[in-house]
Amino acid sequence: MFTLPELGYAYDALGENISAAIMQLHHDKHHQTYVDKLNAALATHPELGDKTIVELISNLDAVPEDIRGAVRNHGGGHYNHSLFWKVMSPNGGGEPTGVLLDGIVAKYGSYQAFIDEFTTKALGVFGSGWAWLQPDLSIVTTANQDVPLMNGQPEPLIGLDVWEHAYYLDYKNKRDDYVKAFWNVVDWNFAAERYEHHLRD
Ligand code: MN3
């Protein structure tokens, strides 16, 4: 049985960047629903009971066909949101430092050029999906609740939810304003730890 992880900060901790109303709805309702529907699907296949979420979504071909779609959507939703809460912090924003900044500058020319490219890709997701920074510092997008892990890629450093439910209450249709605000709360320390871990492996 999977459970909803704690947010790790108060609903209103991200201030005007992402309101308490969105955080509460997004965490308590949307994420909880992914957890509940994932558990309901897995309950029909007790032989999968000891698998981690990463094991399940990294190898969807091994998931029985009758629940594969549910594990893809709700297992992906659970993984993605569990990561997303950690990618943001009330102490976030600013620029990355150290080897992560060095890597980004080496790949994109400058931090701002990276932000521009990530933003363009996030705005280019048609409908619902996610934008990701991968450990090789490439930027990829996925549709719906798909995860780079499902495409044989490693776990992302950071991910940005661009479903309308992530911003509509605050920003209506203005996804660009939401993406701009995300950079005020992104936890570069969290991303840097994941990047350094990747470099060591
Ligand atoms: Mn979401």
Number of helical regions: 8
Q: Secondary-structure element sequence?
A: HHHHHEEEHHH
Shape: globular
End-to-end Cα distance: 30 Å
Structural class: mainly alpha
Number of strands: 3
**Which ranges are low-confidence, i.e. pLDDT below 50, for 5 or more consecutive residues?**
none
Number of domains: 2
**CATH domain class of the largest domain:** Alpha Beta
Chain-averaged pLDDT: 97
Can you describe what's shown?
This protein has helices at 20-43, 53-58, 65-87, 98-108, 111-123, 168-171, 175-185, 188-200; strands at 129-133, 139-143, 158-161. The protein is mainly alpha-helical. It has two domains: 20-87, Orthogonal Bundle (Helix Hairpins); 98-200, Iron/manganese superoxide dismutase, C-terminal domain (minor pseudopilin epsh fold). Helix 1 runs antiparallel to helix 3 (65-87) and helix 5 crosses helix 7. The radius of gyration is 17 Å and the shape is globular. The model has no long low-confidence stretch (mean pLDDT 97).
Keywords:
201 residues; mainly alpha; Helix Hairpins; minor pseudopilin epsh fold; 2 domains; 3-stranded antiparallel β-sheet; 52% helix; binds manganese (III) ion
Detail the topology: elements first, then pairings:
Elements (H helix, E strand, L loop, with lengths): L19 H24 L9 H6 L6 H23 L10 H11 L2 H13 L5 E5 L5 E5 L14 E4 L6 H4 L3 H11 L2 H13 L1
Antiparallel strand pairs: 1-2, 1-3
Helix pairs in contact: 1-3, 5-7
Bound molecules: manganese (III) ion (MN3).
What's this model, at a glance?
By secondary structure, the protein is mainly alpha-helical.
